[in-house]
Design goal:
Helices cover about 20% and strands about 45% of the residues. It is an alpha+beta fold.
Length: about 200
């Protein structure tokens, strides 16, 4: 089973194009930034800092055909744009995965756009599943880096108001991944101690 993950980035209201004056509510930002290690958790037991990084080729084969732009990874009532309706576009560049969304002209859409434009909402999160990864451990630096090299499905990109990783259920799953690794390390260390008695 593939692991569904969410990560936090920034978003802003797009500046109006000088050539086109209209009332569309356009936002843009980066849903993912490449080669930027993110600290997910630091173990108080082992002292290991667990990090994650997205490889520039991670989106090469990603399914983005039915990705939605929404608020706080909310229910379907808060869909603001989608790739299906061509109101959400995404492309990779040297920096990362750039998104541009034309928010639906609904009461919720106007409220969200106003909050983004004012800067009250300026963080993004995205939900995806991991198809391939590599691990780099540095015993001297006491770090463990998971490099995401393949993303299968991109489910949503969301504007969020509280991007604290520890408060999200999806982050709890990412943290569980590292906690399970810690439990295996403890068990291995315990076995070694028993063998030396």
């Amino acid at each position: 089973m593939q692991e569904r993950v969410k990560r936090i980035m920034t978003i802003r209201a797009a500046l109006p194009n000088d050539d086109a004056v209209d009332d569309r509510m356009i936002v843009e930002g980066y849903a993912a930034v490449f080669n930027s290690p993110t600290v997910l958790w630091k173990s108080s037991w082992s002292g290991i800092t667990y990090m994650e990084q997205i490889d520039p080729n991670a989106f090469a084969e990603t399914n983005m055909n039915d990705t939605i732009f929404n608020y706080n990874h909310g229910d379907m009532a808060l869909v603001l744009a989608s790739t299906r309706s061509k109101t959400l576009t995404m492309e990779t560049d040297a920096k990362g995965l750039k998104i541009r969304a034309e928010i639906a002209d609904t009461s919720v859409g106007r409220d969200i756009y106003t909050l983004i434009k004012r800067g009250d909402l300026d963080k993004m999160s995205f939900a995806f599943d991991i198809t391939s990864q590599t691990i780099e451990e540095d015993n001297e630096e006491n770090t463990y880096l998971r490099k995401i090299t393949g993303i299968g499905n991109l489910y949503d990109v969301s504007v969020v108001n509280f991007p604290a990783y520890d408060d999200t259920s999806i982050m709890a799953r990412a943290k569980n991944y590292f906690e399970e690794r810690e439990a295996k390390l403890r068990e291995r260390r315990h076995r070694l101690e028993l063998l030396t008695l």
